[in-house]
Design goal:
Blueprint lengths: L5 H4 L5 H18 L7 H4 L2 H18 L6 E4 L7 H7 L5 E4 L3 H14 L4 E4 L12 E4 L5 H7 L9 E7 L12 E12 L4 E11 L1
Parallel strand pairs: 1-2, 1-4, 2-3, 4-5
Antiparallel strand pairs: 5-7, 6-7
């Protein structure tokens, strides 16, 4: 049986949000049988490894008062973009991915969950025409490479939020035009292990 412990982990979430997160989780598992949205070894404890990670991280980002809209780059499975849009309907979220199959999944999620603050774009990052102030990514690339992706549209007010592990500093050796710092920390505990997770915020120097 697929594990699902989100309601116990986050009892303070209102019922409507709990229901939408569960519905999203069910769609994620269902579609993962068709296309590779999450790795098979993580599926058994996907509620912690993926969903709880997105909730904890989104809470930290939201408390920092990000400017709407937030672009979730290389969104793919919708983590963290979909979770963020469920939790905070006062901020618009744009999920960007170049894989048409994955954006089809995200569009199904948007329609099924009636997420009016979520937009899905089937484009490459270099094709973004807007100049958003806020970006986030989980699993897109290293911090170095993720920041390089938005170099062409950054300005003094740009903020980039990265979901990372404790060894994040190994990914910042080439970030000479960015200042990177830990915005918040949390831990994820599965049946097998406990892992430290961080939200790293990058701002242009």
């Amino acid at each position: 049986m697929q594990k699902y412990r989100i309601n116990k982990l986050f009892p303070y979430l209102i019922e409507e949000k709990k229901k939408k997160i569960k519905l999203y989780f069910d769609l994620l598992i269902k579609w993962n049988n068709k296309i590779n949205l999450i790795s098979r070894p993580t599926q058994e404890e996907a509620d912690i490894i993926h969903i709880a990670d997105a909730i904890f991280g989104s809470e930290i980002i939201y408390k920092s008062k990000p400017q709407s809209p937030i672009y979730d780059l290389g969104s793919g499975n919708g983590i963290p973009g979909v979770i963020f849009s469920i939790l905070y309907n006062d901020i618009n979220v744009v999920c960007v991915d170049s894989d048409q199959r994955k954006t089809a999944f995200l569009t199904t999620v948007k329609t099924t969950l009636n997420l009016s603050n979520l937009e899905v774009k089937n484009i490459r990052i270099l094709e973004i025409k807007e100049r958003p102030k806020c970006f986030m990514a989980r699993g897109l690339a290293s911090i170095n490479d993720s920041l390089a992706e938005v170099e062409f549209i950054k300005d003094a007010g740009t903020r980039f939020f990265h979901f990372k592990s404790a060894d994040w500093t190994k990914e910042t050796d080439k970030c000479s035009t960015w200042n990177n710092h830990i915005l918040g920390k949390y831990s994820l505990k599965t049946d097998k292990e406990e892992a430290s997770r961080l939200i790293i915020e990058s701002k242009p120097i």
